[in-house]
Specification:
Elements (H helix, E strand, L loop, with lengths): L12 E3 L6 E7 L7 E6 L4 E6 L2 E2 L8 E6 L5 E5 L2 E4 L14 H13 L4 H20 L7 H10 L4 H16 L12 H30 L11
Antiparallel strand pairs: 1-2, 2-6, 3-4, 4-5, 6-7, 7-8
Helix pairs in contact: 1-2, 2-3, 2-4, 2-5, 3-4, 4-5
């Protein structure tokens, strides 16, 4: 499965907000789109769009741009560096070792964070609940607060516990009256994505890398057996 790639202005490949497929995107300018065509530079081995005889590097593209997905053929509208239709908000790509059920919630949250940071936080809290079940397995209580306390009792790194708690509290405060207003602090909502990636790195990526490296060590010299 191709990895999720956050949309970015003039990026040739990203995950389409319409069809959710990581696909090639064709870029066009505003009033010059009717005369756009692609050219190929043999010397540099590069393809680029031409508008009225001048390339993108000549800054002929206006502040408005359009990207067309090669998979679904839907067109996204960009103003300066932001996608304004369908509304999108760039977040970090999900950790490559993130379990699929958690990844689905992460991507779903990434699609709505620009329009509703509160909804995104609630979805990330659900992703956290799934993550805790994945980590604790049969020891999971199904309750986020109690599961985090179980990890705390296992002497998990304090910063990791704080990251878990931030997502728990943010996702809860977002749907109940409180002191945290993610609609006023969109950057805080976006930071929750980075925290979930950090948590996945600690619980999934680092153990995988360590196991892979340990398996390359001579078995006769290992202190810990498989």
């Amino acid at each position: 499965m191709p990895k999720h790639v956050a949309p970015k202005r003039l990026l040739e490949v990203f995950t389409c907000p319409y069809c959710d497929v990581t696909a090639t995107q064709r870029w066009y300018g505003n009033s010059h789109a009717h005369s756009a065509h692609e050219e190929y530079d043999v010397e540099t081995d590069e393809r680029y769009l031409m508008f009225n005889g001048r390339s993108i590097s000549d800054e002929i593209i206006s502040e408005w741009n359009f990207s067309k997905c090669e998979n679904c053929h839907q067109i996204a509208v960009w103003y300066k560096d932001e996608m304004v239709h369908p509304y999108s908000c760039p977040v970090d790509e999900p950790n490559s070792d993130m379990p699929e059920s958690i990844r689905e919630r992460y991507i779903e949250a990434s699609k709505v964070v620009g329009l509703s940071p509160i909804s995104a936080a609630a979805l990330l809290r659900l992703a956290l609940q799934l993550l805790l079940k994945e980590v604790l397995q049969e020891d999971s209580t199904g309750n986020i607060y109690r599961d985090i306390n179980k990890l705390k009792d296992q002497s998990i790194d304090t910063n990791l516990i704080r990251a878990l708690d931030i997502i728990r509290i943010s996702g809860n405060e977002s749907v109940h009256p409180g002191t945290l207003d993610l609609n006023e602090n969109r950057d805080d909502a976006i930071y929750l994505f980075a925290l979930l990636n950090m948590i996945c790195d600690q619980f999934f990526t680092q153990p995988r890398k360590m196991q892979e490296m340990y398996e390359r060590m001579p078995e006769s010299k290992r202190i810990v057996s498989d």
